């Protein structure tokens, strides 16, 4: 049994994995030390499990398409004085087997056992399918 937990998060406004990568390359989406981050209102109660090997799995156009290992959870205080959590990830996106996922708000935990498998090195090098096709194939069980 794996002793970590992952997070699954919608990448709102993203059309494909390349779009998420482009967003993460912007200064606004990075920590002061240059790592990609996602700021969220809620602080994970299972932070120790997440930091024990967990990743953030990104849902793009209704399909989990990629992941990033989580490095740390940083406290961020907004201009409004509210404490938030920055989920700081390792740079680079690892494509995973396309897995349909319905829309939800915020983020959800994803057990290591339920997480989609990484694509092979050869599959990683291939051009990604369009999100709509990837979702259609995943919906019928073809990954």
From TrEMBL:
InterPro entries found in the cross-reference section? UCP032025
Name the Pfam families for this protein: DUF1489 (PF07370)
- Could you name the domain of life of the organism this protein comes from? Bacteria
What's the name of the protein?
DUF1489 domain-containing protein
């Amino acid at each position: 049994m794996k002793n970590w937990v992952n997070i699954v998060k919608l990448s709102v406004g993203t059309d494909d994995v390349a779009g998420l990568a482009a967003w993460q390359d912007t200064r606004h989406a990075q920590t002061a030390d240059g790592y990609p981050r996602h700021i969220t209102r809620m602080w994970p109660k299972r932070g120790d499990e997440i930091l024990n090997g967990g990743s953030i799995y990104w849902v793009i156009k209704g399909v989990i398409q990629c992941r990033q290992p989580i490095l740390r959870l940083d406290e961020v205080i907004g201009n409004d004085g509210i404490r938030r959590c920055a989920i700081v990830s390792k740079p680079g996106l690892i494509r995973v087997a396309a897995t349909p996922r319905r829309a939800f708000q915020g983020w959800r935990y994803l057990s290591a056992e339920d997480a989609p498998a990484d694509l092979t090195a050869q599959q990683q090098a291939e051009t990604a399918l369009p999100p709509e096709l990837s979702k259609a194939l995943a919906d019928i069980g073809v990954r």
